[in-house]
Amino acid sequence: MNRQDRFKGCLFGGALGDALGYAVEFMRLPQIKSVFGPGGITGPVIDKASNKALISDDTQMALFTADGLLWAAVGQDGGEVRFAADGVYPSYLRWYYTQSGNIKDRRLLEKQPHEKKNAVFPAGRSIMEYRELFESRAPGNTCLASLRSGKMGTMEYPVNSSKGCGGVMRAAPAGLLFHRDPAAAFRVGAETAAVTHGHPSGYLPAGVLAAVVAELVNGKTVHESAQAAMRILETYASHEETLSALRRAVELARGGAAPQDAVRELGEGWVGEEALAVALYCALKEADVKQAFIAAVNHDGDSDSTGAVCGNILGAAYGFGALPEDWAANIELYELLADISGRLFALAQYRGNKSI
Ligand SMILES: [Mg+2]
Fold first, then answer.
1. What does the alpha-carbon distance between residue 55 and residue 132 come to, in Å, rounded to a whole number?
2. Domain assignment of residue 355, yes or no
3. CA 192 – ligand 1 centroid, Å
4. What is the pLDDT of residue 204?
């Protein structure tokens, strides 16, 4: 399988898991079963008005992460990216604008260098031209409040003490773009999460996800990628909570517990380390891609985020071609997902082996 297929798979996988889980995000498992049958939700719900499976804030923000990384890199003429979050922060301010109508600097809404024809990309539509991104799909309060504050959080200067899963759910694009250097992918993933989430268990899981995605793009298995990412995690301060959640996920995936019991033990996924642990467990445990998606969303907790993160992992591991074809065909924002994954791939190729 080629790398381009993994890039596309990672973004589409995230969107498919998000859409599957969004339909049951605020339901507990008994309610999911009462609505969808004893097997729970087993396929995307199609919105009657648009005839699409609707994505939520997780995918919207992952797309803004990707666009912000392109912005950072191309804004510097494809050269060194010292601090990729500097491009991601204005991109998140644009996301905040889509949800609130508020933006302090209207110049951010104009076409930016990465949206114009340049050395890396042909001319294309700006992300701000996709009206679906302006739909309100249960956006996270921490993301809204921190972006409203006008302050950009960093790991050194946290903007709050939130460990919500809003940091990890959108971090996968960092792993794609910086796949040649998984430690750099980790750092960029964590930095982009720290823009809005100041607790280590809010931003470190985002670093882990980015490093896992990077290792998968480089051809490692899910298990190998998780182990490699955990070794990077251990080099960061205050990693213990995230590391112990991941170790438990790996142990449970090796053991014989039923998936629903294992997921219940790992937590509901409203916070970063739990969302990552549930997603990783499902990707490790289930050999079948569809079953992994289903396990990742049928539980009491934050189904769209656990589904999105699991889908990022599955897509990077097995490629776009391994995702359920009928699910992908009906996903909202198909064109933008394909375009952004293609642009990330083109930029990663262009950057070659330049270190960041
Ligand atoms: Mg959501």
1. 9
2. no
3. 17
4. 98
Distance 197 CA to ligand 1 centre (A): 16
How far away, in angstroms, is 90 Cα from ligand 1 center? Answer: 21
Q: Which domain holds residue 202?
A: 3-350
- Ligand 1 centroid to 333 CA: how many Å? 15
- Give the pLDDT of residue 263: 97
Q: Does any domain span residue 153?
A: yes
End-to-end CA distance of the chain: 26
- The string of DSSP codes covering 308-345 is HHHHHHHHHHH-GGGS-HHHHHTBTTHHHHHHHHHHHH
Q: Which helix (H) or strand (E) holds 168?
A: none
State residue 356's pLDDT score. Answer: 45
- Tell me, in angstroms, the distance from the centre of ligand 1 to residue 241's CA: 23
Ligand 1 centroid–CA 139 distance in Å is 6
Tell me if 220 sits within 8 A of 228, measured CB to CB.
yes
What does the pLDDT read at residue 83? 64
Percent of the chain's residues with pLDDT above 70:
96
Cα–Cα distance between 83 and 230 in angstroms, integer?
Answer: 23
Dihedral angle computed from the Cα positions of residues 287, 241, 137 and 174, in that order, rounded to the nearest 10 degrees: -70
Secondary element (H or E) of residue 40: none
Q: How many domains does the chain have?
A: 1
Closest among 301, 88, 54 to 197, alpha carbons compared: 88
pLDDT lower than 50: segments of the chain? 78-80, 355-356
Conformational region of residue 328, where left means phi above 0, alpha means psi within -120 to 50, and beta covers everything else? alpha
CATH of the domain at 34: 1.10.4080.10
Q: What is the pTM of this model?
A: 0.96
**CA 297 to ligand 1 centroid distance, Å:** 12
CA–centroid distance, 334 to ligand 1, in Å, is: 17
What local confidence, expressed as pLDDT, does residue 79 receive? 46
Any domain includes 356: no
- The pocket of ion ligand 1, defined by CB under 5 A, consists of 56-58, 304
CB atoms within 10 A of CB 156: 6
